[in-house]
Design goal:
The protein is mainly alpha-helical. 64% of the residues lie in helices and 1% in strands. It is built from 22 helices and two strands. It has a two-stranded antiparallel sheet. The N terminus is likely disordered.
Length: 500
């Protein structure tokens, strides 16, 4: 249970600001038990379809349990206090451990025989990136396909956040861990207790998932495909059970359902909770949501006209294909229904912008986030006005609230640093042999957790031909983008590991 930190505990934190290894090991051990339980769900799926690969999930679960027990043994007697440094370590190591152990079913079964490929695929799943190295997805068993999509659903709102919701074991560390893993400019607290808030948001998440499953089945998908795709849609990942992704069904109804719910899953989940309480106006009055919706509509409109003029699509088909591809990239989802590499080249840059922008704060989407872009653009507008009226007081306001100068500075720093990381990664990947277009688009895709790119890694191709070194770099970029840069890179600074 959550409890207030006493004065003695606060003094303990101040005196012991160095990393508490025991509590980190204890929590990581418990989290590995959680992943073992997830493997057992996949065992059930394999047994249901009478497939022999259930044994590989059992082996993987046993490895998790053994390592988890070792971690818990060395973490026995740990203090219950989790400091900020502990929080960053726990979150970073959790994502790395879940990926490292989560790749075991793929690797030991031979479904993905390369370590680099198996790690890449699993990291792409948990970070909801959706990029794949598989060239024959339909050859995988139902158990493997389910696990592949399940990683999207668990990673959508966050692995640690998922654990806080289903098993509130961290006590006073809940707030620290939530802050270390949650993405966005602000963290809306819809309830004073983080564990309760986690349950409420996961309830919204579950409702969206169930609605998507029902609608996809109405559209003609079997229950297994509907469940797997719903994990990817609500988690804004891009793993499909078919090599041709959503295009496999050739169904306008399914395409519209997927496009609409990709967009809905990229809106701040806290607003949906307000809607459940009858406060619908907050959803429609939210500045970030309006910015996000306008961006999707404008990009969709421009590309629709382009497809009619240059690709000779019919009006409805042009709108549907444009809406789907804008939605899948703006929400960092990664499903496909058309090969946009055959579209007019200027539309590619519009799609790249969509990848960079991403979804909204407090959603499962990746990217820079529209709240940050909104703040930056309103600050730029104020600078123009300030040039004409030097003495004017021109605050940046979002949802009627004045944004502090420190927040504006933090947002601007993040956006600039994000672009710097993208540029540096672009150069490194070109040094590894990737072409200019491929290196640029895959970098933006991995950092934004979008999963789609251009050129040789466009929607018609997998990323399997990429050098192993590039796959490891992209795996790191996916994690970097999912935890929003600073939470990971902070651990590479010497001061992080020094006792103050």
């Amino acid at each position: 249970m959550e409890h207030f930190i006493t004065d003695s505990e606060k003094n303990y934190v101040r005196r012991n600001s160095f990393i508490n290894r025991k509590i980190i090991l204890r929590i990581l051990g418990i989290l590995l038990f959680i992943e073992a339980a997830m493997f057992l769900v996949c065992v059930g799926v394999s047994l249901f379809y009478q497939e022999s690969d259930y044994i590989y999930f059992i082996y993987s679960a046993l490895v998790n349990v053994v390592v988890g027990l070792i971690f818990c043994f060395f973490g026995r007697g740990a203090s219950t206090i989790v400091t900020r440094r502990d929080g960053y370590c726990i979150v970073a190591f959790t994502w790395l451990l879940f990926t490292s152990f989560g790749m075991l079913p793929f690797y030991i079964s031979g479904a993905i025989p390369s370590v680099a490929d198996a790690f890449f695929e699993t990291m792409s799943g948990f970070t909801t990136t959706g990029a794949t190295i598989l060239d024959d997805i339909e050859s995988l068993s139902h158990g493997m396909l389910f696990w592949r999509s399940f990683t999207h659903w668990v990673g959508g709102l966050g692995i640690v956040f998922f654990t806080i919701a289903v098993l509130p074991i961290f006590g006073v560390g809940n707030q620290v861990l939530f802050s270390a893993e949650a993405t966005g400019v602000t963290h809306d607290k819809i309830h004073p207790k983080i564990s309760v808030m986690a349950k409420l948001l996961w309830t919204v998440y579950l409702i969206l998932t169930v609605v998507v499953i029902v609608l996809l089945m109405v559209g003609g998908m079997g229950w297994f495909d509907a469940v797997c795709h719903s994990f990817g849609i609500t988690g804004t990942g891009g793993f499909s059970t078919k090599q041709d992704s959503i295009a496999h069904w050739n169904s306008p109804f399914i395409e519209y359902v997927v496009a609409i719910f990709m967009i809905l899953s990229s809106v701040n989940f806290s607003l949906y909770f307000m809607c459940l309480k009858g406060r619908y106006r907050q959803l429609f009055k939210d500045d970030e949501t309006k910015w996000f919706a306008c961006s999707i509509l404008v990009l969709t409109g421009i590309i629709t006209v382009s497809l009619i003029l240059y690709n000779h699509y019919g009006a409805e088909e042009a709108f549907r294909k444009a809406l789907f591809q804008v939605a899948t990239l703006h929400t960092s989802c990664g499903f496909t229904t058309d090969d946009y590499s055959k579209w007019a080249p200027f539309t590619w840059m519009l799609l790249v912008y969509a990848m960079l922008a991403g979804g909204c704060t407090g959603s499962t989407a990746g990217g820079i986030k529209n709240m940050r872009l909104l703040i930056v653009m309103r600050n730029i507008k104020n600078e123009f006005q300030r040039m004409m009226h030097p003495r004017a007081v021109l605050p940046v306001k979002v949802n009627g609230q004045t944004v502090s100068r420190s927040t504006i500075s933090t947002v601007t720093t993040f956006v600039v640093f994000y672009l710097m990381c993208a540029f540096l990664s672009w150069v490194v990947l070109m040094c590894l042999g990737l072409g200019l277009t491929e290196a640029f688009s895959t970098t933006v895709s991995s950092l934004g957790n979008a999963g789609l790119a251009l050129g040789a890694y466009g929607p018609a191709y997998s990323w399997s031909s990429m050098p192993d070194a590039a796959k490891w770099i992209h795996s790191f970029l996916m994690l970097l983008g999912r935890l929003e840069l600073f939470g990971i890179l902070l651990m590479f600074t010497p001061g992080f590991w020094k006792k103050r």
